[in-house]
Amino acid sequence: MAVLLKNLSKSYKEKVVVDQLTLEIKQGEFFALLGSNGAGKTTTIKMLSCLLTPTSGEAVLLGDNVVTSPHIVKQKINVSPQETAIAPNLTVKENLEFVARIYGANKEQARQLAKNMMEQFRLLDKAKTKAKTLSGGWQRRLSIAMALISNPKVLFLDEPTLGLDVRARRELWNILEQLKGKVTVILTTHYLDEAESLADRIGIMHQGKLQALGTANELKSEMEMDSLEDIFLSLTEEGVK
Amino acid sequence: MRFVAFSSRNQKEIIRDPLTLLFGIGLPIVIMWLFTIMQGNMPMELYRIENLAPGVIVFSFSFLTLFSGMLLGKDKSSSLLMRIFVSPLKSSEYMIGYTIPLFIIAFIQIIVCFITAFVLDLQFDWNVLVAIIVLLFNALLYISFGLLLGTFFTDKQVGGLFAIFVNSSAWLSGTWFSLDMIGGLFEKIAYALPFVHAVDSTRFALKGEYSEILVPSLWVLVYTLIIFIIAIIGFKKKMKS
Ligand SMILES: Nc1ncnc2c1ncn2[C@@H]1O[C@H](COP(=O)(O)OP(=O)(O)O)[C@@H](O)[C@H]1O
Ligand SMILES: [Mg+2]
After folding, report:
1. Which ligand 1 atom minimizes the distance to the CA of A46?
2. pLDDT per position as a tens digit, B159-173
3. Dist. CA A199 → ligand 1 center (Å)
4. Does A72 contact B at CB distance below 8 Å?
5. Domains of chain A, start order
6. What is the pLDDT of residues B90-133, one digit of tens each?
7. H helical segments located in A129-215
């Protein structure tokens, strides 16, 4: 099991933001956490990547507990944060090498890894471009490449296509598609089509709770509805708890 | 050496914004030159080059506060720090990573200012070397202030607060007028703060009065430590929320 959550919860004072999340994700699975703004997706990712301490419950990544052995977990995961996280004055190549090196690669290894990433993400002709001058779509692409360069066993992508235009989104999907089976991916999104076209399994999150879990087809037959959109709307209605 | 990668990235970020850097190095040269001309026309003990140079160099360190505060503030808002916190980089490593490049800039400032001071008739002797060591130590104080500002404020707010910081630290440093000319509460406040001590310790070093260096240096040391500690604790807290 790549990821194992048992009653994982987070609250701020009285407010429960993530509520008793229980979930298993297999190695190599592409998992989408689907939910509207404020559902608790980012908070979940932050707990799983050792940035936030859970209020209660347990999260185990590849056999290691995120609370008790964060240093082991950190070496095996990487995150592409919701807001693009790049060093603005560094070039594309330097950004990639920088991340490779803070994960322990030496100079030569970092150079090679950066080259591989630039090939995979078709960033080669932008290698010497400063990150801040890239368009939003390319910045996001770089941000994801920076998350992948450390060779994570589990990759978290927090709303990777948020704010991108249709074309940039499609191109990014094509790249994400290639990751399937190679690395365990946990992607959060509020785009239904994104979850449906990319993910092996989908978890629908609403007000901190996991409302439904399964493949798109499983969800449809279970709910006796034809579209993910109808399912999503009925599960996230006002007053649904 | 993970922190080397991080500090080299920080170095690039700062150097590639050359306007502020040039200002931080160029302004003290101009000031020293102007005040020396003034001193030639109306002899004032305070503006003799051996009194002036320590004050101006310490003044130029306020730009270290600006650089470190802006960089940290910017990293926070661009969520690059989230990326770094997810990585295996330890909190001590990122603080060192921010400090090293600024320390190098401090060294450049010191050398450039002393060369200017020699041109303006400062005598070269071994005391200069002692003064350089004392100055490098004082630079840490200003870097710590920057990390403190960057921890609690955004890069835009740091810009505004820097205006206040540079003014109050300059007024209270005893560089531009001697504090006992005003005396009273003003002088008491100045001596309760570390800025005048930083200037004093450097002046003593340059005069060769080594036994006098210890007390003002202790003031600087205590402030530096306290501010670093507050910055690190605040920083950890910020990232956990
Ligand atoms: N530090 C915090 N203090 C209080 N509430 C928070 C904090 N961080 C997030 N929240 C709240 O938690 C809820 C879930 O946020 P988030 O996980 O960012 O949702 P999502 O990523 O699904 O849009 C939101 O209502 C948000 O306001
Ligand atoms: Mg979010």
Report:
1. 17
2. 999 999 999 999 999
3. 24
4. no
5. 3-188+197-235 (3.40.50.300)
6. 877 888 899 999 999 999 999 999 999 999 989 989 999 999 99
7. 136-148, 166-177, 192-198
